[in-house]
Amino acid sequence: MNLLNVSDSIWFKTIRLDKWEKYETKWSEIITVVSWTIWEILKWKIKTFESSVYHQWEIRALEDSFLTVFDIKDNDIILNRIDVDQKYWFFCRENWKQLRELYDVDGLEKVDLYRWDQIEEEYNGVRYKFNLWFCWKQVDCLWHNQHNFIEVHTNIAWDWYMQKSIDGTDEGLFETVWLLPWNSHRRFDIKWEKEENGDPKYPFHRWLGGTSGNIWLVIEKY
What we know:
The chain is mainly beta. Helices cover 8% and strands 45% of the residues.
């Protein structure tokens, strides 16, 4: 199990549940199913790459399952009432790597985009990586369409947008997906299609910071 804290208010961990094993949340927790299916007490199923939020609740694995869990000690995060320029803004800027330190790209403007070190796990022979990211409001996280992994995002705090473009320009924008905290978007890769090198085929897409900036989880499946 990997643990990571964000300013002592957001604790991230990965957990594995055997079939029929129960997990009891201690306070508000954002749970993303990375592999297989869980079943909460009201018989609502959450499947692979789906997420939800629970408060002092019980869930059960329908198969051997792999989850990510965010223990949220500040319920205002769930309610989307935190002003991002408080302690989380300072914490992420002071402790996480700035975008320019991650990518050596000539002419790239320095933007308010930060990432924590990757956490890597292997589950049932499949390799996964997890990244926590932070950006200030309305930050453009750049159009791209190349991945050697399946990518899904779960929003943790504040609002954000995932967008698709026909040609990687703002003029080619054809879909905007807006998600509140604890929501994940559906997979963006084009089903049944691969690049010539075997990588998943993606449309041009980007993350765009919302009205308040935000913190989110990126799940990478290799």
